[in-house]
Amino acid sequence: MVTALTILLIISMLATLGVMFAGMLGLVRENGDPRRSNRLMRLRVTLQGLSIGLFVLLMLAMRG
């Protein structure tokens, strides 16, 4: 259980990092689409919430 949660946490953290970099690259471009930027921001926030939730579950699983 702990191993599966750890792997899922790492994947969700890497996905968050990837979306964050994609959003930053979109901001650097001169002709960036604001709708795409907004979508990426919402996805980043969702992935961050997922990562925090998985981290809490992992800490609870390691405690017991």
UniProtKB/TrEMBL annotation:
Keyword ATP-binding assigned: no
PROSITE patterns: HIG1
Protein name, UniProt field: HIG1 domain-containing protein
InterPro entries, alphabetized: Hypoxia_induced_domain
Segments crossing the lipid bilayer: 6-28, 40-62
Domain (HIG1) ranges: 1-64
Keywords of this entry: Membrane, Transmembrane, Transmembrane helix
